[in-house]
Amino acid sequence: MNDETQKTSWWKRLSSGLKRTSSQLGSAIAGLVTKRKLDADTLEDLEAELIRADLGPAFAERIAGIIGSGRFEKGISPDEVRDILAGEIEKVMAPVAKPLDITARPFVILVSGVNGSGKTTTIGKLAAKFRSEGKKVMLVAGDTFRAAAIEQLGIWAERTGASIKKSTAGADPASLAFDAITAAKAEGADVVLVDTAGRLQNRAELMSELEKIVRVMRKVEPTAPHAVLLVLDATVGQNALSQVEIFGKTAGVTGLVMTKLDGTARGGILVAIADRFKLPVHFIGVGEGVDDLAAFTARDFARAVVGLE
């Protein structure tokens, strides 16, 4: 598959995956501005619809101001609103659309997130991506609380040709991380992907365990982890904001992966997160397939969210 075909294929998956978000937003915009002048009430209603789409209050207020500027008491078409919205979303997202650069060897990636966010599947997809680039990959089954997670990661290791370090259910994940990084250095691994137990951001003891894993890693590799990815489930909407805040403080999150954008009408939450936290967004997922996780691009996302071709 050539680059152009790949880009077209991903665009189709992205726009299809964000269809629920773009349809809801498009219908709301059309219902508001068709046959109405841009008066204060219309702009207020528009702002409310943007907030309902999880784009965030600050962003929604800004957009309403931009749309109203110079057009007050005039008509505006839904397409014009969508064009303005796409442009403003792109402005917010462009600074955070950053690739995950592999800058060390082994490059240790700690993957965190709450239960059900899609962490283990994301690790598998990342392993497939790095393996396709010819990198030697090690998976670390650090979610020792769930036997199913260890088993799931083992399947991904077989499928992608990555090596795996695992222990029995209930083992100390920090010790496992220490042993794994020691082995990765000895074996010449390029990338080490460390799974962690899904934890609620309001459970202090689980969050402190995450800090312990980082501390212990640094005994064997002082610069590790080189990246701390937070996997977010788009379907949780506003709750994702508190996850970014608390995991950021505890685990030192360096970048985000947003999954399940195909399962929600709340894809706008990624805009609110970028607007507020300015953290790099490395990858987004729009399906279960191994190819449904791709590097984040601001323009494509902005156009897909508002339903532009």
From TrEMBL:
Enzyme Commission identifier(s): 3.6.5.4
CDD domains for this protein: FtsY
Keyword Transmembrane tagged: no
SMART domains: AAA, SRP54, SRP54_N
Annotated residues for binding of GTP: 113-120, 195-199, 259-262
InterPro entries, A to Z: AAA+_ATPase, P-loop_NTPase, Signal_recog_particl_SRP54_hlx, SR_rcpt_FtsY, SRP/SRP_N, SRP54_GTPase_dom, SRP54_N_sf
Top EC class, one word: hydrolase
Origin: domain of life: Bacteria
Alphabetical UniProt keywords: Cell membrane, Cytoplasm, GTP-binding, Hydrolase, Membrane, Nucleotide-binding, Receptor
GO MF terms held by the record: GTP binding; GTPase activity; signal recognition particle binding
PROSITE patterns cross-referenced by the UniProt entry: SRP54 (PS00300)
Reactions catalysed, as given in the entry: GTP + H2O = GDP + phosphate + H(+)
Cellular compartment(s): Cell inner membrane; Cell membrane; Cytoplasm
GO biological process, one term: SRP-dependent cotranslational protein targeting to membrane
Topological type in the membrane: Peripheral membrane protein
Alphabetized NCBIfam families for the sequence: ftsY (TIGR00064)
Primary role: Involved in targeting and insertion of nascent membrane proteins into the cytoplasmic membrane. Acts as a receptor for the complex formed by the signal recognition particle (SRP) and the ribosome-nascent chain (RNC). Interaction with SRP-RNC leads to the transfer of the RNC complex to the Sec translocase for insertion into the membrane, the hydrolysis of GTP by both Ffh and FtsY, and the dissociation of the SRP-FtsY complex into the individual components.
Family: Belongs to the GTP-binding SRP family. FtsY subfamily.
Protein name: Signal recognition particle receptor FtsY
Organism (species): Pseudolabrys taiwanensis
Source species taxonomy: Bacteria, Pseudomonadati, Pseudomonadota, Alphaproteobacteria, Hyphomicrobiales
